[in-house]
Amino acid sequence: MKINPDKSKAVGFTRARVKERLTYYLGGQLIPEVNSFKYLGIIIRSDLSWADHVNYTLRKAWKALHLIMRILRQGNNNTKRLAYTSLVRPILEYGAVCWDPYRDWQVSALNRVQRRAAKFANHSDESGWETLAQRRLVARLCALYKAYTRSPSWKAIGNSLRKPCYLSRGDHCWKVRSRKHRTDVGKYSFVNRTIKDWNSLPAGTLASFPCKLNTFRKTVRDAVTSK
């Protein structure tokens, strides 16, 4: 595969205040250094913050929702609800396993989109839908399930998971050893954050483990929404 230097960017991942300038060349052409870039639809920043991607997702989701509201102004509730779940919610959830926000303002900003859609579809803020935070939690747990069961595309993460050194009576036997972290970036990264959620699952939720992914998803969703 030939790499096009005109479409290439250089980025150094660090949280240091003073950064060394990157000088990379490809085919004799200097690769420009950037602080953020889009990769497979996800905006990644050099400080590993997801603020840029959350803002990008919000702009895109509001644009799609406003378009639906103009076109389906006279539509029935089911059509409006289907339009939201088919065209807007996938925008809010694309790649959310890795960028699931933990800052309150980001969580609230994403929730406002769904609340507005619920008011449009049901004429009420109380939609009865799963919250976006609940759906992201289920998605993260399902992703860790794939890693735990060594699904081919998640095997690298699965191989890094370790059993805890100690299990109490109240623990389920599928717990994963927690990792140490010094920063919020590490604490709220996908693996570290989801290990904590995984370990706090009720033992009954994993009674049939290992099982088919769809069965696990349904069981976990029931446990999450019943809280």
SSE diagram, text form:
Elements: E1 24-26, E2 29-31, E3 36-39, E4 42-45, H1 51-71, H2 77-93, H3 96-99, H4 104-122, H5 132-148, H6 155-160, H7 184-187, H8 190-199, H9 213-225
Antiparallel strand pairs: 1-2, 3-4
Description:
This protein has 227 residues and is mainly α. It folds into 3 domains: 5-34, no CATH class; 51-129, no CATH class; 133-225, no CATH class. It is 49% helix and 6% strand. It has helices at 51-71, 77-93, 96-99, 104-122, 132-148, 155-160, 184-187, 190-199, 213-225, and strands at 24-26, 29-31, 36-39, 42-45. It has a two-stranded antiparallel ribbon with strand order 1-2. The chain has a two-stranded antiparallel sheet with strand order 3-4. Strand 3 and strand 4 (42-45) form a beta hairpin. Helix 1 (51-71) packs antiparallel against helix 2 (77-93) and helix 5 (132-148) crosses helix 8. The protein starts with 23 loop residues before the first strand and ends with a helix. This is Reverse transcriptase domain-containing protein.
